[in-house]
Each structure stands twice: as C-alpha cells, then as structure tokens.
Write a structure and sequence with these properties.
- The structure holds two protein chains of two kinds.
- Chain A contains seven helices and eleven strands.
- By secondary structure, chain A is an alpha/beta fold.
- Chain A has a single domain, classed as P-loop containing nucleotide triphosphate hydrolases (Rossmann fold, 3-Layer(aba) Sandwich), CATH 3.40.50.300.
- In chain A, strands 3, 6, 7, 8, 9, 10 and 11 form a seven-stranded mixed β-sheet that branches. A four-stranded antiparallel β-sheet of chain A has the order 2-1-4-5, with helices on one face.
- Chain A starts with a strand and ends with a strand.
- Chain B folds into four domains: about 210 residues, no CATH class; about 180 residues, no CATH class; about 220 residues, no CATH class; about 130 residues, no CATH class.
- In chain B, about 45% of the residues are buried.
- The chains are: A alpha/beta, B alpha+beta.
C-alpha cells in the first residue's frame, strides 16, 4: 500500500542546514496500522506530512498504491490524496461555521457525491452523534468534536487514514474512547492506518511501530507484519 | 451548486455580513445618486427638445422688426412673437410681482402648453395639452398665484391698466426652461392685450423673442429665411438654436451631477475600505478550510473556481439588494427636491441601474478579490503545521488595486478624466491630512494616558498599539461625520448667517424700472413716508460689441455672459458708497486722459475676466447707437451692501441722450409695507424686488437640497460604521486573546469592559474632533467662496462632533466587541 525508501528532509535556515529526517525506510501493506512515535521535535509530523503527500522530502521516494508521489507535482499529489487519503488531526480542524453534519458532508460534496448528507448522517450515527447532527463545533465537547472528525475522515472511505496525535487534545478517559472508536472503524472499513502519537498504549494497539529520535529511525520497523 | 451552498453557509456563520452590507451600501449610494441625476437630466433634455417652442428663436431687447414678419409671411414661415417682463398684478387688496409672458395666438410653434382647470393639479387626467396660448382677455396663471392674490379661477386680475379673466391654470409651457430663474408666479397672456395694459413703456425691461418654424411642406424656404434673417441681426439680437438651448441645460446639469458624484463617491470609498478590511478578515477565516480542501485532494484551480463563483454570486446578490435600497433612497431624495424642480420627472433608463450594478461588481473585483487572491495557494501542509505561511498580496498591492478601482469608478461616473483625477487627489490629500492629525491625537492620547488610571492607560496604549486599524476607523468615521455636519451647517445656519450679517436697516427692497416721467412721483411717495433710499441711479441698457476695436471671439462670448446679454450702464459723479477704486483715477481729478472717448469705470473682477486693462477701449451699443469708452479706473464692489451696484459707471452727462430708467434700493420697515401698494397702484410698471422674499426662497431651496443630501449622508455614515466594524473584526482575535489573558490573570470583567469603553469612546471623540476640524474647514471654504461671508466659528460642531462621535463609536464598538468580555476565557484560549 505504501512504500518508503531513503527519505530525508532538510531545511535551510539562517543558522545553517537543519536535518529533520534522515534515511527513513518503511513498507506497509493494506489494512495494516503503523504508529510513529518519538519525542517532540523528532520529526514525526514531518514524516506524516511526507507520507500523506502534503510535503516533499529532500531525497528519497514514497509510493502510494504503486504511484511515486515524490515524482509528482502538487496537482498530481492532490489527485492521489483525493483517491486514497483521509486525515484526523490533533486539533480536530472542524469548520466552526458548519454543523456537525455539514462538516462531515463537505468532503463528500466536494467529491460530487449525490447523497452526501445521508452518508454523513449515517457516519455520525456510527460515531454515536446521530442526535447532534445540527450542532455546531462550539456546542460540542472536545471528544465529540473528534468523533465528528473521525466520521468525516471515514465517510470518504479512504484507503489510508493519517492521524496526527488524534487524542493529544483530550483527557485520558475521552482519549481512550476515541481510540477505541478509531480502531473499531478502522477494522470495519479495512483502512490502512498511520498515526503519530506520544501515547504508548495507543502505539501498542498498532501492528507496526516506527520510533524516531532526532529525525532518525531508532530501530528497524518493529511489530508484526500482516 | 456547491459554491452557492458554501456561500450560504458562510453567510449563516456571519462571515459575510460585513462584506455584503458594504457592497449593498456602495451600490445603494451610487444607484440613488445616479437615478436622481438621470431623472432630472432626462426631464431637462425632454424639455429642451421643445425647449424653444420653435425651430429657431431670435432673442432681443428690442421689439421684432416688422420686415421680418412680412418676409416670413411671404415665404410661408410660421412665426410667433413673445414679450416677457415682470409686472405687478392686483386683485382686490392683494398684489404680486408676476413673471408675465405675452404670446401671439400662433404660439407655440413646437410642443404644447399644458393647462388645467384644477388648481395644483398633479393627476394627468386633470391636465390637458393644447397647441395655443390664452385668447385675448384671458390669463393662464401659475397655480400659486391664486392663493397669492386670494382669487379663484374665473376671477379678474389687473395687469397694468387692463383687467383680465383668469381662465386656466398654467402647468407648463414648452419654453419654460427659464422659469428656474423667475421668482414671481408665471402668467401667460395674449399679445394683443399688451397695448391695453400699457405695461410696456419706453425703457421698460422687456425681453422679446421671435419664434420661427418651418411649415410642414417647405423646409427649403426655412433655411433661406434663416440665412436672410442672420444678415438682419444687430448686436441686440441673438439667435438661439435647440442645440444651444440644450448646451446651457447640460452645463447646469453637469454641475449638479458633479456635486452628487462627489458625495456619492465618498460613500463608495468608505464602503470600499470596509469591503477590503472585511474581505481580508474573511480570507483569514477561510485559510483552514482551503488547507483542508487541499489535503482532501482538491486542486488549486478548483479552489480558485469555487471562490470566484462565490464572489460572483455575492456580487449579483449584493448588487441587486443595493439597487433595491438605492431605488428606495432615490425616492426619498426625489421627494425632498421635488418642490424646487418645477418639472415632472420621467422614469430613468437603464444607465443608473447598470452603473449601480457595475459598482457592485467592480467593488468586489477591486476590494474583495485581491484579499482572497492567495487562498488557492494555501499549502495543504497547514493542516499539520500551524506555522505554514501563505503569501498574500502585499498591502501596497492591495491598496493600489483599491485606488485603481476608485479611479475607474470615478471615471465611469464623471466621464471626465481630469475631474476624476482631481477628486481622487482631493480624497488622497484629505486622507493624508486626517491620518496626520489622527496620529498626533493617538500619540497625545498615549502620552497623557500614562498619567491616568489603569483603565485609561491600557485603553490609550491599546489605541496606539493598534494604530493602523485605529486610524482607519478614525478617518473613515470622521469623513462620514464631517459630511453630515457640512450638510447640516449649510442647511441650518449658513443662509441665516448670510442674512444676519446684513445691517439691521440694510435695504430690503429694490425699486427698478422707474421711468423718467415717474421719477418725481415715486420720490415724493418715498419722502412722504420719510424713508431713505440708497440714492437714485439712472441706467440705460446696452451691449458690449467690441473690445479694443475687435469683435470678441466666439470662445470669449461662450465664456462670459456679459458679452452675450444686455448690461445695465449707469453714471454718477461721486463714487458710490461701498465702491473702492483699485486702479486708475475716479473722474474729476483731472488726471484721466480719454482722447475724447467716454471714460468708464469697470468692476475689478470683470476687468480680469474679460482680459482687459486700464486704457483699453470697449464699444457699447445702446438702442442701436454705438460709442467707444476707455477704461480709466477699476472698482471693487460691496455686494452685501444691498445698494445698487454697477459693473460699468460713466461720468454724468455721457449717456443722458439714451432712453433710461431709474433705480434705487431702500429699507422699508414692515409697518411701511403699504408703501409698495400705493406705489404700484400709481406706477404699475415699476418693479419692486422684495429681497427678503428672495432670500427666503433661496433659503428654502438650499434647505431642501441639503435635506435631500443629508439623507444620503446617512447612507454614507452607514458606510463609516461598516469601516469601524470591519476594523474591529480584524483585531477581534487579538482582543479576545488579550482579554482572556487579562481575565485569567485575575482582571475583573469591569476593567476589561471599561478599557473597551474608554478605547472606543476615545476613538470616537477623536474622530468627532477630526470631523469638526474638517467640517469647519469645508464650511469656511463655502463661506468664503460661495456665500462671500466672513469666517465664523460653529462652536456646536466642536461640541456635537466629539460628543456624538464618542457616543456612537463607543456604543457600537463595545456592542460589537462584547464577545471579548462575555466569552469564558478558557474557551477563548482553546479556540485560538
């Protein structure tokens, strides 16, 4: 599903060249889950951005579903993202002016789906928010907002779901519930899951783990390959 | 349609309210102004198509030559003669100085006269159009003459020595364009009644018109006749073609439209500023959405398309709404000016609607599109990294596009490059001056705020810290407030001041057109009442034919009225009171050398306007005889003295052989008003000009026009309020954050609310002060150049401006930004 070889990322600042990622390699089959772990500033989110085609590596290649996204321009990568990729973010990124239902329906509407609202409603029911479809994000708790974000991500039926610290803004109890929901949906939809987290327990629920330290892959990819 | 859906959702979320309102107001201001201007213009143009009531008119101060009539009859040319003059009319104890037009039975040759049998008829069914004037013995009169003389239709009115029956109400004559300048009620009478009335005496001020029109079947004869007629004309005659008639209307209309344009474009500029700020704010709010779109794989092109579609939809919706509101406001304006526009207003064509609509589209292109331009380039990485920067068009670029938009709009409205550039330059200078003063005020506030309590210190330093939005709000607001103040000052006090500054016993009546044989009798009447005149002046009517032995060029004639019309020439041995010699010598000092030419003293400004100098010669034609005069001195006049003033003065004896009349001015106290009755009964051809009534009339016109403009100023004030809201919106996140932090640190809501009150109120007071400064300056200019008044302070401006500004801005600002105080600090901090 996803094939990464020798990814490096450097940025040039006024104080010289900064190496953010060095020589990352990984390979993930469809339906597998991967946790990218490591301390703050180790390059987790940068790696996630590159894997999702949001950012470009300085060197190395990323293949998604057999397509070399590192050789594409932004429009080409956008086309790949449109077909394969979904996101869940630490700060939810719900649009404040839209109701829960509209937030979930928006990407479907952009895809031109005819029954976007119905599909969105069905997914909101699946995350347990069937009663709150017309609420605005500000009327929802953090946990509820992240459920809406999960519904939005899964409603598009992405092949790969990227989650950036999905419970980082939530308390432990709520975080656990969100994690349960994430894995439940993931199992049901057969999605490949790549997540960035600080949480050990969350990382342990993934079948693969990649630990980063100062931009380097600490050890070879651990976990059970499906 | 997804774009429409997105737009409606943004609307519901309140992100578009400001953009939409600013758009609607800009379109409404322009539409209302354009509709009014177009309707008035159409009315005037429509009038001018039959403006002459003929194909060609010869206007003259002399009665029409009988040769002209004979030849016209031989050649089958249709003719009609008209004599216009002012004369006293009487009915019972009442009297009125009417503007009388005596017409031959063939009048009008073109167009129709509208008359009615219902006084003050407005219903079309009560009005009939006829192709004739009154029959002998009848008068058709302006409806207002009925109450003025306390009569009804069918009653008898005396004009001069004759008595006539008022048979119809005169609604409109085709050639009534000159009625704008007529103060008296209009009366149409039959030409054949003139001798019996005896109102026209040698030397009377009468203007004659000789109307000619081609008969239906022989147009060739007409051209031949006009060629022949052209050779017969002397200096007292002037040919008026329909084109010329239109040209004078066009120039009057041009002035009016420019004035409206100026007022309207202030609204557009303010709305444009509000649009630009609100759009910038809107764009900031869209960054996350666009980043999400792009992370979902939506291409930059699709994003661009989606936003352009939204802008187009917004432009259409906002402009349509603006057109509707503009139409409503234009109705208010029309009702405000209806009374002084003595004509019916036809419906407007498509142009004002197109202008209004295009304003909306252009405003969005110029002010909103640049603010959103960078949105499609937002990086999808922004969903992961907050610090992702998107490169927006820099503010210099956006500012330039805004200025360009205003320039394009001004050029569109005025169709005159130089005028639009001049207005733009005026805006720029005003804005720069306001920004300069505003900066000084803000700086003073910060400096002195340090010595006051914590609320004041915080508030005033906030204003200084956010000086960009503070200045925008201050300048925008002060512009709108100043405009409102100027209108109010003009309406309420300027005309009063003009009257007030006349001395208590300044002459309030002019007696004109007193024939030589009536002079002694009139003098006796005045003496019996022990009234003092400003001195009697003799005058003859003459025309300038040559300047320095050269015929004035057509350009010079077009440029100066005194080369086209008859002038009043007078003579005196003593320099009249209020006159001052500027150059040269007054006669009798023996220093002037005239080479046997008549010496003449010329008014200073006219001398310059005609391009003359001391020693130059001017040839006059009086009653068909010519003589040359040499300019020996120039004088300045005191127009406010209300005494007779003459552009041309000769020494005694030079003009005494010509037919002359006499004039004076005098103060008639209200208890002696009956003098006028006695005078006019005995000497009906004497014209009494009641200045107090004229001043009242001017005041009422100025008051109506400015009242109309004041209403429009309210729209402009609305634009100013939007500028403020938009500026506050831009700093809202910062305000929220600051007050959340302050509250987290333990500050009370009272303190934060207090800071906001002080901040906005101070801003309003400063804006009001700036507005008072601007208004006082503008009023001073009006006083100096329009009303020729000495400068006076309008102290209420300096109180009402800061007070009103402080209250308005304080209240609106606190209400608009109350969110910063009412939201729980934790939620605020979390959501940022």
């Amino acid at each position: 599903m996803i094939e990464v070889s020798n990814i490096s990322k450097q940025v040039t600042t006024s104080e010289g060249t900064l190496r953010i990622l060095e020589q990352i390699n990984l390979s993930l089959e469809a339906g597998e889950s991967l946790a990218i772990i490591g301390p703050s500033g180790s390059g987790k989110s940068t790696l996630l951005g590159i894997l999702a085609g949001l950012d470009m590596p300085t060197s190395g290649t990323v293949f998604i579903d057999g397509k070399n996204i590192t050789a594409m321009d932004e429009e080409g990568r956008a086309a790949v993202r449109a077909g394969h990729v979904g996101f869940v973010f630490q700060s939810f990124h719900l649009l404040p002016g839209l109701t829960a239902l509209e937030n979930v329906a928006l990407p479907l509407e952009l895809q031109g789906m005819a029954d976007a609202l119905q599909t969105a409603r069905a997914y909101l029911e699946r995350v347990g928010l069937g009663e709150r479809v017309s609420h605005y994000p500000r009327q929802l708790s953090g946990g509820e907002q992240q459920r809406v974000a999960l519904a939005r991500a899964f409603a598009c039926r992405p092949a790969i779901l990227f989650a950036d610290e999905p419970t980082g803004n939530l308390d432990t109890g709520t975080g656990k519930k969100i994690n349960d929901l994430l894995f439940e949906l993931n199992a049901e939809e057969g999605t490949t899951l790549i997540l960035v987290t600080h949480e050990k327990t969350l990382a342990e629920r993934c079948n693969r783990r990649l630990e980063l330290q100062a931009g380097r892959q600490l050890e070879s990819l651990s976990g059970i390959s499906a | 349609m997804l774009a429409l859906k997105m737009l409606l959702r943004s609307w519901r979320g309140g992100q578009l309210g400001l953009i939409f309102s600013a758009l609607v107001l800009a379109v409404a201001v322009v539409t209302s102004v354009a509709l009014l201007a177009e309707r008035v213009e159409r009315a005037l143009v429509k009038e001018s198509s039959s403006f002459l009531a003929a194909d060609l008119v010869v206007s003259s101060s002399q009665a029409t030559d009988s040769d002209w009539l004979e030849r016209a009859e031989q050649q089958g040319i249709r003719t009609a003669r008209i004599a216009s003059f002012a004369s006293m009319t009487f009915a019972g104890d009442e009297m009125h100085l009417a503007s009388i037009k005596a017409v031959e039975s063939s009048y009008p040759l073109r167009g129709a006269v509208k008359r009615s049998t219902v006084p003050f008829a407005t219903d079309e069914s009560d009005i009939e159009s006829v192709m004739s004037g009154p029959k002998p013995g009848d008068l058709w009169v302006d409806a207002r003459l009925l109450p003025l003389l306390n009569i009804e239709l069918g009653d008898t009115v005396d004009v001069g020595d004759g008595s006539f029956k008022v048979s119809h109400i005169l609604i409109e004559e085709p050639d009534s364009g000159s009625s704008f300048s007529a103060y008296g009620a209009r009366i149409l009478m039959n030409w054949s009644d003139l001798p019996a009335s005896g109102v026209i005496q040698p030397g009377s001020r009468v203007s004659y018109r000789f109307l000619i029109a081609a008969a239906e079947d022989n147009a060739d004869n007409f051209d031949d006749y006009v060629d022949w007629l052209n050779q017969q004309l002397d200096v007292h005659d002037r040919i008026i073609t329909p084109d010329e008639a239109q040209a004078s209307i066009a120039s009057t209309m041009d002035k009016g439209r420019r004035f409206l344009l100026l007022a309207g474009s202030i609204g557009v500029v303010l709305a444009g500023i509000a649009l630009a700020l609100a759009s910038h704010h809107f764009a900031n709010g869209q960054l996350l959405q666009v980043a999400l779109f792009k992370s979902w794989g939506i291409s930059a092109n699709r994003v661009r398309k989606l936003y352009i579609q939204q802008i187009v939809l917004l432009a259409i919706g906002g402009s349509l709404m603006g057109l509707l509101i503009g139409w409503g406001f234009h109705q208010l304006l029309v009702s405000a000016v209806r009374e002084w526009l003595p004509i019916a207003l036809p419906m407007a064509g498509a142009r004002p609607w197109i202008t209004g609509f295009a304003t909306g589209i252009l405003c969005l292109i110029g002010f909103t599109l640049p603010a959103l331009w960078h949105l499609p380039t937002q990086s999808p990485l922004a969903v992961l990294r907050r610090d992702t920067q998107v490169k927006s068009l820099n503010s210099l670029m956006r500012g330039s596009l805004g200025v360009l938009t205003v320039a394009v709009l001004l050029f569109w409205y005025s169709e005159n490059f130089y005028l639009s550039m001049a207005i733009l330059l005026g805006f720029a200078i005003t804005a720069l001056a306001s920004i300069g003063v505003g900066l000084v005020l803000l700086r003073l506030g910060k400096t002195y705020g340090h010595w006051m309590g914590s609320i004041w210190r915080l508030a005033l330093s906030n204003l200084w810290r956010r000086k960009k939005p503070s200045l925008i709000q201050m300048v925008g607001f002060s512009g709108a407030i100043a405009l409102l103040m100027i209108m109010t000052v003009v309406r309420t006090s300027l005309v009063d001041e003009w009257r007030w500054q006349l001395a208590e016993d300044a002459p309030n009546h002019f007696l004109v057109n007193v024939a030589a044989y009536e002079l002694e009798g009139v003098k006796n009447l005045v003496d019996q009442r022990e009234l003092e005149t400003a001195g009697w002046y003799s005058m003859v009517r003459g025309r300038i034919t040559h300047l320095n032995n050269q015929l004035p060029s057509e350009v010079a004639k077009d440029g100066h009225e005194s080369l086209r019309r008859e002038l009043n020439l007078s003579w005196t041995s003593d320099l009249p009171e209020g006159n001052k010699i500027i150059q040269g010598q007054w006669w009798g000092t023996g220093n002037e050398s005239t080479n046997n030419l008549a010496p003449v003293s010329l008014e200073e400004e006219l001398l310059h306007e005609l391009g003359l100098a001391i020693g130059d010669t001017v040839r006059f034609s009086v009653g068909g005889l010519s003589f040359d005069a040499v300019i020996t001195s120039t004088r300045s006049l005191n127009w406010d003295s209300m005494t007779p003033n003459f552009y041309f003065l000769f020494p005694e004896g030079y003009l005494e052989d010509y037919p002359r009349t006499h004039m004076t001015s005098l103060y008639i106290p209200s208890e002696d008003k009956l003098l006028i009755n006695d005078l006019l009964r005995k000497y009906p051809t004497v014209q009494v000009i009641e200045l107090d009534k004229i001043i009242d009339r001017i005041r009422s016109i100025v008051s109506q026009v400015t009242r109309g403009l004041e209403m429009m100023t309210l729209l402009i004030l609305g634009c100013g309020i939007l500028v403020m809201f938009a500026a506050v919106s831009l700093s809202m996140n910062e305000r929220l954050q600051e007050s959340a932090i302050l509250r987290t640190l333990g500050s009370s809501r009272r303190l934060i609310l207090g800071v906001q009150w002080v901040e906005f109120t101070t801003l309003g007071v400063m804006a009001g002060f700036l507005a008072a400064l601007g208004a006082e300056f503008a009023v001073a200019m009006l006083q100096r150049f329009m009303f020729s008044l000495p400068f006076t302070w309008h102290s209420w401006l300096w109180i009402a401006g800061p007070l009103g500004g402080g209250l308005l801005v304080g209240l609106l600002g606190v209400v608009y930004s109350r969110k910063a105080v009412t939201q729980p600090p934790l939620r605020v901090l979390n959501s940022l």
